[in-house]
């Protein structure tokens, strides 16, 4: 690999050499490991994230997100719980997983205060659960399935990673777990990790 290739970046500043590793990731554990490396700053490419690194808000929860990715949940989105100057956030994490992990995460809704919304492979849903408010306006919602089940989504995932992983994600569960208490940030991530470890 020549020097130019190892330093070349795409239009979003992502390192193309790190993108090449995603061409080999064909399982949820492999995608989770690469995501954990990105969260830890060891990679500058993450599919579907159009910047080379994490944002400031994610820094505080990055170690826990890395652990979740190494425990069977290929995370897609997340945020910490916050309450400050007109901003209110519920802590949440979303991602792809195998049926066994989905079952363990759905069980969280039965035995904790947390809420898990599970989407079976191929399922399409359009719910709107507010998780971020800014000056009383809804900014972020959960409840919609995100699996790459449509041709356009499959093409996007194939382009960002590889065709094999896109097909695996199309056949995986997509879960959204959130803390219903606005601003709380000391429950969700440890509980999700515990459920994955026990499941």
Write the layout of secondary structure elements.
Elements: H1 3-7, H2 16-22, H3 28-39, H4 56-59, H5 62-69, E1 74-79, E2 82-84, E3 87-89, E4 92-97, H6 99-111, E5 115-119, E6 126-134, E7 137-144, H7 151-160, H8 163-170, E8 173-178, H9 188-198
Antiparallel strand pairs: 1-4, 2-3, 3-6, 4-8, 5-8, 6-7
Helix pairs in contact: 3-5, 5-9, 6-9, 7-8
Notable features of this structure?
39% helix, 199 residues, 8 strands, alpha+beta, globular, four-stranded antiparallel beta sheet, 9 helices
Structure description:
The structure is a single chain. This protein is α+β, with helices and mostly antiparallel strands. Helix content is 39%, strand content 23%. It is built from 9 helices and 8 strands. A hairpin with a 2-residue loop joins β6 (126-134) and β7 (137-144). It is globular and about 45 Å long. It starts with a helix and ends with a helix.
User: Residue share in helices?
Assistant: 25-40%
Low-confidence stretches: none
CA-based gyration radius: 17 Å
Helix and strand succession? HHHHHEEEEHEEEHHEH
Brief rundown of the structure:
The protein is of the alpha+beta class.
């Amino acid at each position: 690999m020549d020097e130019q290739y190892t330093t070349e970046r795409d239009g979003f500043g992502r390192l193309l050499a790190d993108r090449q590793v995603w061409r080999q990731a064909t399982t949820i554990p492999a995608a989770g490991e690469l995501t954990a490396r990105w969260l830890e700053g060891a990679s500058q490419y993450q599919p579907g994230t159009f910047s080379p690194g994490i944002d400031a808000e994610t820094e505080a929860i990055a170690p826990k997100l890395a652990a979740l990715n190494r425990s069977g949940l290929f995370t897609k989105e997340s945020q910490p719980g916050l309450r400050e100057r007109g901003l209110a956030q519920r802590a949440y994490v979303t991602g792809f997983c195998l049926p066994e992990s989905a079952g363990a995460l759905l069980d969280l809704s039965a035995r904790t205060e947390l809420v898990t919304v599970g989407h079976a492979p191929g399922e399409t849903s359009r719910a709107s659960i507010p998780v971020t408010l800014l000056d009383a306006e809804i900014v972020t919602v959960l409840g919609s399935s995100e699996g790459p089940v449509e041709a356009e989504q499959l093409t996007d995932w194939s382009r960002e990673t590889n065709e094999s992983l896109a097909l695996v994600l199309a056949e995986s569960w997509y879960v959204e777990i959130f803390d219903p208490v606005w601003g709380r940030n000391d429950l969700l991530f440890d509980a999700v990790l515990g459920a994955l470890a026990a499941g």
